[in-house]
Amino acid sequence: MSVEAPSTWRSGIISATMDDIRRQATSKEELYTAAVGERAARYYVPKFLAFEEGTKPFSFNVWALLFGAFWFCYRRMWISALVLWIGGTWLVGFLTSTTLLAVGLSQLTTPIMSIVSALYVGVILPVFANYLYYSSVGQRIAHLREKFVDDADALSALKSRSPISWVALAVLALLVVAGRLLQSGVLQNQASESHVRAAMEQTTTLRTAVVKSYLSRHVWPEDLKDLSREGEVLLYLQDAENLRIDLGTITIRFTTLDGLRGGLLSFRPSLSSTGAVVWTCGYHTPAGVDVPKAGAGPDLTNMAPKYLPTECKKHFWDWN
């Protein structure tokens, strides 16, 4: 006597068998090919299969060496581009410089940082680039296999989507260009600020002479000639073309460097509550008060605050 199994049992067995057949019908090689594109498949698919079998753990990618983060974005690995290439390069440089400074080798920071960063970008990342791409593609395929019961549907989904991304590449290119321009602007501003500081230091002797003159006569010197008659000004400053004094206020005129050319920066003297002479640089809030009926000359500062050090700005965040 035979017992017939319930139809639900039979359908379950048949369904499982058909799923297995469908999955076997679509090979991993086909899925990899659809994920990377037909043209790139001849290069990447054999490497992916080798990674899968564990026969070849490393593989150098020349494109990752030549194009770096652009290659990662082009191959739809945006997180890898951001974390490993951009963030990793910064972290390697930071750790290297911090270590060298900690051991007292600050003079070697720049060359060693360059060498370490070059090894990271030019050797380590390209060596692991193909494996990172294999992992990325594998995650994409695994996600689609969870979404679709049939591998044929997963294969169709892979084929319907471009294996590369020009949009991400264009965005990254714009970010790189913007970063370069910003870096160039920052470097230019730093150079200009250093030039301004050097000029400010040259007025130290002149400011000391103005203070001595005021303390002895209780009036501000009218100009450089007035100050020189007292013997307080060095000879090389008496005929300075880019320095002027107007009732104690010292003004520097800049004639070099783009952005600074034609700019004026003034140091204006006043008195503190104790009667001491104090100086106000540029746009900064006045450090003291004017002498009654005998104030110093006007502040002629007209430079963009971004070129000035903090002590010459009204607010430290001033830029334009």
Characteristics:
2 domains, single chain, 4-stranded antiparallel sheet, 12 helices, Glycoprotein, Type 4 Pilin, alpha+beta, disordered N terminus, 320 residues
SSE diagram, text form:
Blueprint (H helix, E strand, L loop, with lengths): L6 H19 L2 H9 L1 H16 L8 H6 L1 H6 L3 H25 L6 H39 L3 H10 L5 H37 L1 H14 L6 H5 L6 H4 L4 E4 L2 E5 L10 E8 L5 E5 L39
Antiparallel strand pairs: 1-2, 2-3, 3-4
Structural class: alpha+beta
Described by strand count, sense and barrel closure, the largest sheet is: 4 strands, antiparallel
Side by side, the strands of the main sheet go: 1-2-3-4
Distance between the termini: 98 Å
Tally of separate helices:
12
Number of strands: 4
**Helix fraction by DSSP (H/I, runs of at least 4):** 55-70%
The Rg value, from CA coordinates, equals 36 Å
Percent range for β-strand residues: 5-15%
Low-pLDDT sequence parts: 1-19, 234-240
| Tally of distinct domains | 2
Principal-axes geometry comes out as: elongated
Explain this structure:
By secondary structure, this protein is α+β, with helices and mostly antiparallel strands. It has 2 domains: 14-177, no CATH class; 193-312, Glycoprotein, Type 4 Pilin (2-Layer Sandwich). The protein is 59% helix and 7% strand. The protein contains 12 helices and 4 strands. The protein has helices spanning 7-25, 28-36, 38-53, 62-67, 69-74, 78-102, 109-147, 151-160, 166-202, 204-217, 224-228, 235-238; strands at residues 243-246, 249-253, 264-271, 277-281. The chain has a 4-stranded antiparallel β-sheet with strand order 1-2-3-4, covered by helices on one side. Helix 2 (28-36) packs across helix 3 (38-53). The longest helix is centred in the middle third of the chain and has 39 residues, at 109-147. The radius of gyration is 36 Å and the shape is elongated.
